[in-house]
Amino acid sequence: MNINKIAYSTFIAFVASLATLVSIQALSSSDRDAADDDALDSVTLDELAEHDGAESCWKAIHGRVYDITDYVPDHPTDEEVILEWCGRESTEGWDNKRPGVPHSARAEAMLEEYLIGRLVDDDGEPLEPEAAARAEEGDEAGDADGEPARLSPAEDERLHRALLGLPLDGHYRGVFIDRGVIQVNITFDLEDGRFTRLDYRHLAYRDDDYLAMEEDDELYPVMRQHRQILERLEGQPVTAIFALYEPERLADDIDGYSGATLRGAKIISSIRDALNRGVYSWP
Ligand code: HEM
After folding, report:
1. How far is the centre of ligand 1, averaged over its atoms, from the C-alpha of 92 (Å)?
2. What is the rounded distance in angstroms from the CA atom of residue 258 to the CA atom of residue 221?
3. Ligand 1 centroid distance, CA of 48 (Å)
4. Do residues 173 and 189 touch, judged by C-beta distance below 8 A?
């Protein structure tokens, strides 16, 4: 046997023993994984969903749950990329950092430092990534079949208001127009049938644009009175608008201008216009 052959056989023996070591290691580590998983704390999708932001970010990846809150600022992308998956089943994102490209072995080793539990269903059974993702989608759409959630007719407040002819909650816009010119353009929300976030988008009479007025404008007090009216309607039920037939009930006298100066009927009219038009957009 020449020296080359000896070196070659030694090399082959070395490679073979290395391969054996590696496979023993692989086997024992998968045995250890399974045993470890049973010992891990159980985390349900609902618990996972509570940790959905930078202040506490948990992710479920391949059936295990990781608290990666401390890692988020160190991730080599913009934070939104990794924050988007907080509180969710994230196997899809983990296996596709770019489409079709999984994270490296180095990233996988880092991930294990943040292991805190295993993902389970409501019966405490391990939850596979696909089933978890389906359950999450079901939650968003309504139920596990993807059907939109439907309230019972006994509970559906929107339906009740519609049946009674009451205005629905939502965002409204309306106008008072005289001879083709908008004088009042008003916007507000209804919450539980009460006014919130009332504001003028436009308030003018002839050439006077009240919203553009400065404090030294002669009619500035009138603009303040109009603002007072909206402040005082805030939180009131829609029926409160009829007090505006006597606007001094809702606006103070300011600098000699009294309620008599105000044209409360125009505001009533613009609010009724908004209600007649119906919800402009949903909150
Ligand atoms: C599940 C949501 C995640 C998404 C969508 C995501 C996405 C990405 C992207 C776009 C890159 C950079 C592009 C590239 O290297 O090709 C990247 C790199 C990296 N990410 Fe993530 N990541 C996620 C979670 C995590 C987590 C939880 C960790 C570790 C705890 C992590 C560790 C790393 C590391 C170390 C790199 C450098 C490249 C590598 O080693 O693969 N990532 N990730």
Report:
1. 12
2. 10
3. 20
4. no
Ligand 1 atom at minimum distance from 81 CA: 5
Tokens of 215: 């404090």
CA distance 174 to 266: 11
Pairing of strands 115-119, 41-43: parallel
> What is the C-alpha separation between 59 and 70, in angstroms, rounded?
13
Which residue in the block uniquely carries the two structure tokens 């939104």?
Answer: 80
Ligand 1 centre to CA of 27 (Å) is: 27
Q: Which residues line ligand 1 (CB under 6 A)?
A: 59, 68, 71, 75-77, 81-82, 85, 90, 93-94, 97-98, 103-104, 106-107, 110-111, 114
Residue whose CA is closest, atom 14 of ligand 1? 97
What pLDDT tens digit does each residue of the chain (283 aa) get? 555 665 556 555 554 554 444 444 444 344 445 556 778 899 999 999 999 999 999 999 999 999 999 999 999 998 989 999 999 999 999 999 988 899 999 999 999 999 999 999 988 899 999 888 888 877 665 555 555 667 888 888 888 888 888 999 999 999 999 999 999 999 999 998 999 999 999 999 888 999 999 999 989 999 999 999 999 999 999 999 999 998 888 888 877 776 666 788 999 999 999 999 999 998 7
Residue 200's identity, in one-letter code, is: Y
- The pTM assigned to this predicted structure is 0.50
- Which amino acid residue places its CA nearest to atom 35 of ligand 1? 107
Residue ranges and CATH numbers for the domains of the chain are 39-141 (3.10.120.10), 161-277 (no CATH)
Q: How far, in whole angstroms, is CA 271 from its chain's centroid?
A: 30
